[in-house]
Structure prediction request, 345 residues.
Amino acid sequence: MTYQGLIHRYGQYLDLPAHTKNISLLEGNTPLIPMPRLSREFGCELFVKFEGLNPTGSFKDRGMTAAISEAVGRGAQTVICASTGNTAASAAAYAARAGLRAVVLIPEGKVAAGKLAGAVAYGAEVIQIQGSFDDALTLVVEITQKTPIALVNSINPFRIEGQKTAAFEICDVLGGAPDWLCLPVGNAGNITSYWAGFKQYQKGLPQVLGVQAAGAAPLVLGYPVEKPETVATAIRIGKPARGEQALEAAHESNGRIISVSDEEILSAQRILASEGVWVEPASAAGLAGLMAESVRGSFDASGKKVVVVCTGHGLKDPSIITESFQSPKIIPMNYDALLGMIGGV
Ligand code: AN7
Prediction:
């Protein structure tokens, strides 16, 4: 049978109410890409779970199919979220599919071009707030408590239900859980979901390495960050809604949550791209964390199965790349000029 999306594929494992009306863009079923060069370097079997290949270009679609399906089934007419960008684009697409109105709140000037364009293209009402993601989330929580507007941030438990499916897919492909799972941590919905998913599926448990950006690392510091800053705008979050659960996942799995610098994130982004996988900066944090840990000698990957979760596509944030190189050279339209430019072949 052809693939029919996550609720169809894994619905029996998802705690969704009976009124749920399946709204799907055939999300999920993303590839677990072997990375032979990185595997050799670390002496392990390293895979990238490339979540950038979801319908709107990020892992958020897994939770959004569930959240929107539940909301539309219960008769909601408007959904709202705060977002660093990917949630906004995903909510906009699934709301469009369901015929709902979507309102998305984003931090002014801090959302990557591909995400903002996505939200607009899918027809969401996009509002910038003069504040951070955390401020936007506070507003969204208040308005959904006082009005019938449905909240689709990952505080919504159905988002977590949907996002558990990534853990199921990894187990199904590998025939069990990997030894390590490395992933970025922002609002901490994803790490919470993976851990819940692995526990529920009972095909083994990975150790979890959660990775925050150094300028937005409340879970490493142990207190909220008032003014988070990082090149990885997706995880520019100072007060994660599911922070406690993220720490629990790290602790229970005998893993940890660490932080990496923006330079380490961008370097990991380049390394992934050099093996054919272009991800947005935040999505490279998992690999950056793995690299930082192995340089410190606190991570022995040898002989292990390691899954690095790459949460969003590189196309989401092209300016990170285009700002760092000069425009391609221009030549006259003739063969000699071309050969001259290419040089020795
Ligand atoms: C590419 O879109 O919070 O720890 O509003 O876009 O589950 O928050 C995005 C988060 C990692 C962190 N990678 O996941 C939003 C938003 C990418 C992301 C994360 C995000 P969580």
About this structure: The chain has a mean pLDDT of 97. The first helix runs from residue 6 to 10. The CA atoms of residues 330 and 341 lie 10 Å apart. DSSP finds 15 helices and ten strands in the chain.
